[in-house]
């Protein structure tokens, strides 16, 4: 059917207006969502679980990147400044406080997920001995030796508190959807409570209570589930142990008949492998969940799935 010139013009105008209407609808949908920036994987996962469809949650630190050493780019700082909500753990992100000062936004809500949680010192006995010998000559070294452990998220019990802090931040940033955030947080915390119970039940009867790991990331997990972490090095995964530290760990492992030396993803396992070779043990992964690997992503793993894998590895190692 042919249209007259006048009718054709009306039809074209209608199509143009229709297209504009659809575009505006999509933009409005995006505009209705909170813009949330979260520092690294656990904070991203917890925030997404609570926010649901109400927010666009963007993680700063890419998968496979060690967060202890990461620094934000100018683009990252701009993203934080423009966000409605910024979520970070605290202590891991040494850049956070300074960045928040330079990226001020009076309308942004900032959530430090470890606020109000009783933090533990990350000092192990090797560090304590070294500092006693040095006589605490330098204040900076004393602070470094007694640094607070940031790895709160590795205790399912404490992860629940972090989720509640994030819930409160979302409710403050978007009070109109307060009930939905509470509902989502309650549902996720129910899963974390089940995980917490599984850790308690499966580890309570372990034959051995000590485990050796390459990096001191599991202090909260050990404390909450009646275990003792024996780290080869300190809180930073890049810290190289001294020969004396290596010898002490080897002696401990031999004395306690340790059969597994744990190492972490995103970190070279050579130190753990060296000790394992010396004592005739094997190595296994204990994932600190500081970032997902490509393999984790391809398997569809998330916080709960990886923590279940960690639990299975611990149960096996502690009952050998």
UniProtKB/TrEMBL annotation:
Disordered, as annotated region: 118-146
Gene Ontology terms describing biological process: cell adhesion; metal ion transport
Keywords: Coiled coil, Signal, Transport
InterPro entries xref list: AdhesinB, Bact_metal-bind_prot9, Lipoprotein_PsaA-like, ZnuA-like
Coiled-coil features, chain-numbered ranges: 178-209
A molecular function (GO) term: metal ion binding
Superkingdom: Bacteria
Biased composition (Acidic residues): 121-142
Family listed: Belongs to the bacterial solute-binding protein 9 family.
Protein's recorded name: Zinc ABC transporter substrate-binding protein
Lineage: Bacteria, Bacillati, Bacillota, Bacilli, Bacillales
């Amino acid at each position: 059917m042919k249209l007259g010139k006048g009718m054709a013009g009306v039809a074209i105008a209608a199509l143009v207006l229709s297209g504009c209407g659809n575009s505006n609808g999509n933009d409005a949908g995006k505009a209705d969502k909170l813009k949330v920036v979260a520092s690294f994987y656990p904070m991203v996962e917890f925030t997404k679980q609570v926010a649901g469809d109400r927010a666009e949650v963007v993680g700063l630190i890419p998968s496979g990147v060690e967060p202890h050493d990461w620094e934000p780019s100018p683009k990252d700082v701009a993203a934080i400044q423009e966000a409605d909500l910024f979520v970070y753990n605290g202590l891991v992100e040494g850049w956070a406080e300074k960045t928040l000062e330079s990226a001020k936004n009076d309308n942004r809500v900032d959530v430090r997920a470890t606020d109000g949680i009783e933090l533990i010192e990350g000092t192990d006995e090797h560090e304590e001995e070294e500092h006693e010998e040095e006589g605490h000559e330098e204040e900076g070294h004393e602070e470094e030796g007694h640094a607070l452990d940031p790895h709160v998220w590795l205790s399912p019990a404490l992860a629940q508190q972090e989720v509640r802090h994030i819930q409160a931040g979302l409710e403050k940033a978007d009070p109109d959807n307060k009930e939905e955030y509470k509902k989502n947080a309650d549902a996720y915390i129910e899963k974390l409570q089940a995980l917490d119970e599984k850790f308690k039940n499966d580890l309570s009867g372990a034959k051995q209570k000590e485990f050796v790991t390459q990096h001191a990331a599991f202090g909260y997990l050990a404390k909450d589930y009646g275990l003792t972490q024996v780290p080869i090095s300190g809180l930073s995964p890049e810290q190289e142990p001294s020969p004396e530290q290596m010898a002490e760990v080897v002696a401990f492992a031999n004395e306690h008949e340790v059969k597994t030396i744990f190492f972490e993803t995103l970190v070279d396992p050579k130190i753990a492998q060296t000790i394992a070779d010396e004592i005739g043990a094997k190595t296994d992964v204990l994932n600190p969940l500081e970032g997902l690997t490509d393999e984790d992503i391809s398997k569809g793993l998330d916080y709960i799935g990886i923590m279940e894998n960690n639990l299975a590895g611990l149960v096996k190692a502690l009952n050998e």
